[in-house]
Amino acid sequence: MAGGALMAMAAVLALAAAAAVSASTGGGVQRVLSLERAFPVKEEVDLEVIKARDRARHARMLQSFSGGIVDFAVGGTSDPYAVGLYYTKVRMGSPPQEFNVQIDTGSDILWVTCSSCTDCPQNSGLGIPLNFFNAASSSSFSPITCSDSVCTSIVQSASAECSSGSNQCAYSFQYGDGSGTTGSYVSDVLYFDTVLGTSLIANSSAPIVFGCSTSLFGDLTKSDRAVDGIFGFGQHGLSVISQLSSRSITPKVFSHCLKGEGSGGGILVLGEILDPRIVYTPLVPSQAHYNLYLQSIAVNGQMLPIDQGLFTTSGNRGTIIDSGTTLAYLVEGAYDPLVAAITAAVSPSVRPTISKGNQCYLLSTSLSEVFPEVAFNFAGGASMVLRPIDYLVNMGFVEGATMWCVGFFKVPNQGTTILGDLVLKDKIFVYDLVHQRIGWADYDCSLSVNVSITTGKDEYVNAGQLSVSRSSSTREIFRTVHEYYSAPMLHLLMLWVLFL
């Protein structure tokens, strides 16, 4: 039987070779091509290396990176007295120009400052260089005009405006802190590293629409924490995650793990981080932000007497998670019971005090020894358990003791509860936009993570080691083959299997 399979396979290859020779012969002159092995004969090569090489070839051939993940380096910390934000690098234009942009899940659009920007900082207190996008030096740059279909769709959603005088698709963004930016939408090439498999990173690129800012106002004009722009990871169709996933370059899911201790940093991928401890809760549908169904808050396992209606999403009310916010904000009807419960739970050695209107505590021992755990309970049975370090901020030394202040700030009951970096740090967060859910798990963000590179999760990349898991299921193996191999190659492979 094996001999018959080999003969059949040889016949198929012979026919293919004959067709190739026939097609390459012209004018009576036979063209002969010399071939060399991709891998040395006597050198052992892991099967996964070969598979990864094939996937790269097929991605180039099919002009897509189906199932690939995009990995971004992360800088910054949640410490409000150091950096107070997280940022990453993006490269755009031809030749590439590099920019440091803040990671922001509370907005939608990627924008960077342009060379014509007024009131823009010239240097940054974060110790990073500030750059300005120079459209004139990019051969792949193109403006988005008022007649462009992209602009038409944005104008309908009130995210842009058009001036008949300039014929440019313009925007004006204002953030919750009163800062903002104005400019126009443009298109250019975004460069990124796509992880396709074992130790294989493809240098990839795709044209995207982004904002070219010509004016800043508010805190964005200050140099102390200045960056080159903001990388919005919202759900809008013009967010980078939406643009890339619509072309099957990345899955419509992204993940981050923001390191809170030490020098900060962390992990940001366009892909799904996998961890068995991750719990998921549904997103509130049809919202501009990542709104969740917060149901209750507990201190040391005891539910607080809070009206659940205060968390209901309606108008400006609700509960959102936002990586662009440094601290956390809680509506008054929940803030007061929470602070009262924390104060009642601490040991007598802790001295409560008020500093600049905030509830603080003076102590000389470890936080974990004297402060309780706080749990935010969401729909679907998902709880976000906060350690003391996740809701307290170190304010330095006072009267020979360390002063820790509650990192939650009170907002009116008609306002929005916002969970910022103080709460999000040291956790995996997965934003699954396909299934409209968000998941999280406690994690040491200095470690590598497993990231799914296929929708079926039969393969994953271990970021840092870039190892790919093997599936023992024949069905899973064929699912992988179907995703990565072109139709003619699949046909030959299936012929070979049928002959065995």
UniProtKB/TrEMBL annotation:
Signal peptide: 1-23
One example GO MF annotation: aspartic-type endopeptidase activity
Keywords assigned: Aspartyl protease, Glycoprotein, Hydrolase, Protease, Signal
Designated name of the protein: Eukaryotic aspartyl protease family protein
InterPro entries recorded: Aspartic_peptidase_A1, Pepsin-like_plant, PEPTIDASE_A1, Peptidase_aspartic_dom_sf, TAXi_C, TAXi_N
Family the entry assigns: Belongs to the peptidase A1 family.
Active-site annotation: D104, D322
GO biological process: proteolysis
One Pfam family per UniProt: TAXi_N
